[in-house]
Amino acid sequence: MAHFYLNELVGTAEVGSRVSIDGPEARHAVTVSRLAVGESVSIGNGRGLVATGSIVTAEHTELAIEVEAVTSVPRTEPAIFLAQALAKGDRDELAVQAATELGIDGVIPWTAARSISRWEGAKIAKGHDRWSAIVREATKQSIRAWLPDVLDLATTNQLARLAPEVRMLVLEPTAELALSALEPDDRDIVLVVGPEGGIAPNELAALTAAGATLVRLGDTVLRTSTAGPAAIAVLNAKLGRW
């Protein structure tokens, strides 16, 4: 299995230069993955740059490579963002992890009316940090050149204000339009997924009034942890990403 790590502080890299990781990232690589001098590793900066080379330093405090190849991956357009409603247990986290592996460009934590889980007070920063960590680990696991953004916690009103600026698609089992029948255009996409109890009628009304489109995946109802990833897979095919 290829080894891929992130160092967001890397600005540029060229063949023959050295690129490194440090701190917990290096400690994990050396003590857990047991990487050693001479093995090949890739290090990305999360903004499209990926440097690959052989390890020349393998210490608990630093792992460095001598760069043998540099790849620059452009950001995919149009972008796809997942507005994932907060959900109980780890269902929202499972959705965020899978969405990252499937190529999402950013995630928006959403406090929906029927969300059982709530981020309030100190939980807002804690929840954001948790989602950011999940996105980072999933990015490394899937060897992605771009690290998805984790945006601020949003209310339904804030999502509605965003709708005119993007192509907002709201997953709703009763919608007439199938996601697979949607014709893509060049607008960035915001995919809205509700919590366990679904999206409340007044929220659907507010989002559609702002310009969002209701779409369905099929005749069955998926869990909040799987609906978003399933829809992203459809969009990947429609947009030619796959």
Task: Describe the protein's architecture and organization.
The protein is α/β, with parallel strands linked by helices. Helices cover 29% and strands 25% of the residues. It has six helices and eleven strands. The strands form two sheets. The protein has a six-stranded parallel β-sheet with strand order 8-7-6-10-9-11, with helices on both faces. Strands 1-3-4-5-2 form a five-stranded mixed β-sheet. Strand 4 and strand 5 form a beta hairpin. Helix 2 packs parallel to helix 6. The longest helix has 20 residues. The chain is elongated and about 60 Å long. The relative contact order is 0.15. The model has no long low-confidence stretch (mean pLDDT 95). It is an enzyme of class 2 (transferase). Belongs to the RNA methyltransferase RsmE family. Specifically methylates the N3 position of the uracil ring of uridine 1498 (m3U1498) in 16S rRNA. Acts on the fully assembled 30S ribosomal subunit. One of its GO terms (biological process) is methylation. Keywords: Cytoplasm, Methyltransferase, rRNA processing, S-adenosyl-L-methionine, Transferase.
**Quantity of strands, as a count:** 11
Relative strand content: 15-25%
Helix content: 25-40%
How far apart are the first and last residues' alpha carbons, in Å?
22 Å
The strand line-up of the biggest sheet is 8-7-6-10-9-11
Structural class: alpha/beta
Number of helices: 6
C-alpha-based Rg, rounded: 20 Å
Overall 3D form:
elongated
Mean pLDDT: 95
For the sheet with most strands, the description reads:
6 strands, parallel
Unreliable residue stretches:
none
Order of helices and strands: EEHEEEEHEHEHEEHEH
